[in-house]
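Dear colleague,

Thank you for sharing your sequence with our group. We've completed the structure prediction you requested, and as agreed, I am returning the results in plain text so they can be pasted directly into your records. Please verify that the sequence below matches your submission; if there's any discrepancy, let me know and we will rerun it promptly.
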Amino acid sequence: MKKYLLPILLISLIFIGCTKTKVQSEDGNTDQRIETIISEMSLEEKVGQMTQITLSHLLKQDENGVIEPFKLDTARLKEAIVNYNIGSILNCGGHANSLEKWNEIISTIQDMAINDTRLQIPILYGIDAIHGANYTQNATLFPQQIAQAATWDPNISKNIGTITAYETRASGIPWTFSPVLGLGRQLSWPRFWETFGEDVYLTTIMGQALTEGYQGTKLSSDSTKIAVCLKHFVGYSQPNSGKDRTPASIPERELREYFLQPFEKAIKAGGNTVMLNSGEINGVPVHASKFIITDLLKQELNFNGLVVTDWADIKYLHDRHKVASTQKEAVRVSVNAGIDMSMVPEDYTFHKYLVELVKEGKVSKDRINDAVKRILRIKIKLGLFEKPVTHYSDYPQFASEEFSLFNLHAAEEAITLLKNRNQLLPLDKNQKVLVTGPTANSMTALNGGWSYNWQGDETDKYIEAHHTILEAIQHKIGTNNVFYIPGSGFNETKNLQRVLDASKKADQIVLCLGEDAYCEKPGDINDLYIPEAQKELALAAASTGKPVTLLLIEGRPRLISQFEKEMDAVVMGYLPGNRGGDAIANILFGDVNPSGKLPFTYPRFPNALEKYDHKHTENLGDGKDNASFNPQYEFGDGLSYTNFSYSNLQLSDTIMEENEEIEVMVKVTNKGKLKGKETIMLFISDHYSSITPSVKRLKKFKKVPVDPGKSRTVDFTISKEDLEFVGSDNKWKTEKGRFTVSIENLNKEFILK
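Please find the predicted structure tokens below.
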């Protein structure tokens, strides 16, 4: 049980033996230092700072592309850094690198920036370290964000951020393109698993925690911390079609009430860089929207950090969105809208066109200076001028056992038990188990995209030390007690008859279905149902008459209503990372009591995708079977191997006056025989308002341990802020009236005066 102390001890542990650098700016005044540098820069040097190039463009190449094993091309590097004075480089060259290789890459780049350029401005290097330092071999790869949300424990995300920052800095890299703060409300979107789920409040709390884990309470030159990049501002996660980088239609009122809050809070928590939405909202590409970038983000939210594009998105204003008749026009529109840095990422056309536009008076020098100041501020805050390269020898806990144990703990806290007919789970370790399904023996499935490479499809090359689900079960109960028949691939049946034959020797079937790794556009789908081949395997397993546990390893809720009733138990595994197989085995066989809860609504049908906070008119019908809101599993669902009951819901007052608060208390009792953890969720319902209210909205939550036979009282504080909504004038407001607090099956009313 020592591993459960890790969340408390972790932050102190990772600093043992680690060198930290805290360097004051040379003149003690960052703004003055920036002004001094700006005054010495040419226009070309300033525009260079606004240019970001991918690493692959700087590697030695032949007619077939990058030559492996890859090496930096000195001529290409000189062109980028010396000739064009670029300010930033991103990416990994196509696959994960060793710590030694990363040190070689970053050192070579920074040496040229410091020694071969006039102003000696270091490069800001960034990668998508979204669930660990996932482009570094042997790094600790954690559950993806959707699984982190299922823990309902902000400290887990904070500690994941802390470890990720440490291991990313060990790689010599100071900037991560994370966290994703879009809401997972479009279930087929291929980046759904990068979100914290469908709820505004849960996303906000978990996003703040991950942000603080990455960079501390504020960005500094602490060499165990990295700069975050909040993404993707704003509304990217709700495309109309569910396909990546496709148009969204989001009224401004909804944009503010649902999608803006997580960014606003993360900026207040110290987020210093933002990446923009690659799509368009209401017919306007975000990269061309002065309203979104300048008026909303920089002015209204008072964001003084760096705004960076996503991959080639300025070019797409011409190529895809068709709002710019030339590439040069696309540069003009985007920079004037407020872009500070362009992820170009493979040529210098942005640099060429922007220099021309400034000389022609079509982009002001003030706009250029503003962008460069924002870029320099990040570099200074990170201490890159004083220490442009961190060395892995200063990070002795990289890939340590302590980190691995915490990774296991995080995955265990996420795994969600959704169904347990006749208390099938936990399984008996002495029984024979048939393991089948396409995710059973796949580390790529456990990790998903952004794992060792962009699509995550090379993961199995790097993880010999970790267990797939099959291997973890074999390790748990012995290979002699486990039979394995794949049964199907992700999209094709294979050997169903062998599954039927093997089932005769088994007492239990563990059916592992879901998705293979994917990321971004390649993950687009046309059908939310789980693929037909997997459905056939599920029905075949059910036909054996043996108890079937369905284990779902997937980045979004693939529909299972065609066979769910045939399953005896259902476990949601999400994308649980490198220790996910071990975590699942621990839960299946009762060594860990599950405590995860769904951070989204799991739909039953493809045309019934309402969220938990739906409007009253979204649930009209003759009865439950004909009502729109009839999901497979509801937001917040999650069972335990023990039983919890709720009682004695109390409010400190039934009247909330202006600027007053109400205390809410509820008693939670563990009526079972096992220690367990329960997440107490407080929802508020507005009875009537000028904007149609949701049925309920999550406003508070706490995850607490409760011993068997014991009770504990959990308290919350609610204020007027918890009752606010965005009105028809696009401004936040509250309205007097009656409200209901609900926790589990208990309800209490109060009145806002």
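Summary note from our side: The two ends are 49 Å apart (CA to CA).

Kind regards,
the structure core
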